[in-house]
What does this fold into?
Amino acid sequence: MDKKNLPFISRELSWMKFNERVLAEAARVPGALPLERLKFLAITASNLDEFFMVRVSYLNDRKGTGTVDDAGLTAGEQLEQLLDRITEFKSKQNQYHGEILEDLQKSNIVFLKSLKPEDSGQITANQRQYLKNYFEDEVLPVLTPLAVDISRPFPLLANMTLNIGVRMSDEDGNELYSIIQVPSILPRFIPIRSSGEVQYFLPLEELIIEHIGEICNLYDIEAYGCFRITRSAGFDADEETDDLLEEMKRAVKKRKRGKPICLEVSDGFDAQMRSFLREMLPVSKRFMFESPNFLDLNALMKMSFLSGFEKLRFTPPAPKVPADFFEYDNIFDHIREKDRFIHCPFESFDPVVEFINRAADDPSVLAIKQTLYRVSGKSKIITALERAADAGKQVTVLVELKARFDEENNIQWATQLERAGCHVIYGIQGLKTHCKVTLVVRREEDGIRRYLHLGTGNYNDVTARIYTDTCIFTCRPAFGTDASALFNHLTGFSMPPHYNKLVVAPKHLKQFFIDGIEQEIRNAKNGLPCGINFKTNSLLETDVIVKLYEASQAGVPVKLLVRGICGLVPGVKNVSENIRVRSVVGTFLEHSRIYVFENAGEPLLYMGSADLMPRNLLSRVEVVFPVEDPQIKTRAVDILDLMWLDNTNAWEMDSSGEYSRVKKAAKDKKVNSQLTLLKG
It folds into this structure.
């Protein structure tokens, strides 16, 4: 099949559509909770920052090269379409931000726009005195105004910092500029003491602006305003170095000084100062955005968890004890009885932590081997691994130093684990290790037994409460043999092995999916039961998409739950009429990957760490594993079926590549798959 004649969606445009679906959660709808809406608004801002740092920067560096993507667009064409969409997106962000602030004010949470009389008439003299004292005692000591003149060049401003630009003039009329960085070490929104029911907050930058004349008092102030820059996060670590840890430290520091890619300014920003900043940074006019509200909406995430206003946000109940982990004494005995399953965050992540804790303390355990990609700040798992090493067990930890935006955190953990006596490795040169695997080797009465945890999500007890992920525990011998072979390959010089059960990228995984789809095509042609039912975060791998188009044309029903990027277009006549694509965006981030092939009536079901993207299938170490326990298979299929019934959080893509919410028919009951799973 010639892919030139097939429909594809640009990766970047597809991602923007995903962030638009997230932003829709911040829209004003009947019954919406304002702090919950505020949270989603902050998420979209964080997403967009990362998007600028990585993908927009990538396209900007490649415009003019003439190369085209699968959708037939050059980097320049993609960039133009993208910036148009981003401009519209930011307009919606500002609209929703204003609406949310209005709703919060009705609930006695007031964000003051400034301390000007027209914006702060409700603030008393005592409260103003409190703010003045706070400025003098807490803020002024940490401010560092940076003058820009002949002897003092424009400062290197850190990525995503909020700054105040000040334009001044001397007695001769010469223009002078000063930059004041808003200290990120202080709370962004200052709570103002109040004896009444209303809780007031003032942005830190507005308190600084209120005292700008005291800070810059040598010359006449002509104008001032807030601005924020976002820098490219391009990464150029030399993996052939003798000391990868030190090289990663160097690369992380260098990234903070990346090329500016986006400039945001406050409403009514001075035109002369705008020109000055564009010249100094420099940033093209196309990459400059003005906001009528606060800059850096990321900061609103902390405010969404404001204490005392719990009724204004959705607070999920504590995760339930997993159905597979009721009433047992020893976790190893429990796993030996049968495979065990957990579905986070609806079920507790605690058994994963207990598994590693027990392994650390059990004298019968000889070795623990684990991959770590993203870990929480205060990780109980890290503590257990340190304790195991101290007890003399063989502890091997593969810490992925190249986990984007978690590099510094992982460098810290790697150093700490090495000091504790763990064998710390950094994976295979040129490949990120993204798989989620823990192997525990235990001596028992009948010999050595290997216990295994395999999952779709990170070993992170914090994100386990907000990401939907699945995992299994097993001690099936074939799985244990495969896990040992995998770790030996990662830590030593052994050849990539032949696996009995696990499917491992980069060598086998892409072909595994293509072979599976081709088998469904053959089944369709032979009149056998056929079907493909995938749940993944992203679908972009061209050859897999082409093969799914072939399956559709052969009559294979294809159902794709793709949370984020999707390069495939469903419902196109004579191409993808048998394919449906939905995206579920709700309170929790859908993160689990489940892949089902109908297989002539005997379904094959797999889970794993890999999405259907080139990087996952060809440039990472990923693991997809079969689910063989019948009860777990049933539960996983039930999860997929429930998500296809969702008419609250689900969006469906049409044949033009656009999404619309799945609407509830009059005869149907309302289905929210995530809430249904929460209730059990």
